[in-house]
Amino acid sequence: MPGMKRAPLLTLLLALGTPAGALVRLGDPLPTHPWKSADRELIVVYSHDCGDLGELWGAVLAAGLPVRAVNAEDIPAPAPKGVNVWRGPEATAFARALRVGTYPAVLLVREGRVLNAWEGTFAGDLGLAGKD
């Protein structure tokens, strides 16, 4: 529909697609973590070998929810300016307790429980071209 704006969170969820390949179990509570949980939040779990995550970070930050970054696997990797990153053995243990199978992983969390999960590459293509 011409002139219709998409909500940033909806756009992100459309971009991420379905959780078909995710090993993270929907509905599971988050393992122990160092931040105060928000009502709804996005958690990005990534490692040093994910490549360029610029488009993914852009989509995640545009969603308008608190963003938590978990840099797993003991080799520091950057996150966007202003995003606090949790690193170290506890961050890796968190990712493994969630059963993250592929980095990067994006989790939509509501009240401390995984509402949706996506794992794998992100090309930024929403698949919406020509579907007005």
UniProtKB/TrEMBL annotation:
Signal peptide span per the entry?
1-22
Q: Which domain of life is it from?
A: Bacteria
User: What UniProt keywords are attached to this protein's entry?
Assistant: Signal
Q: What is this protein called?
A: Penicillin-binding protein 1B McrB
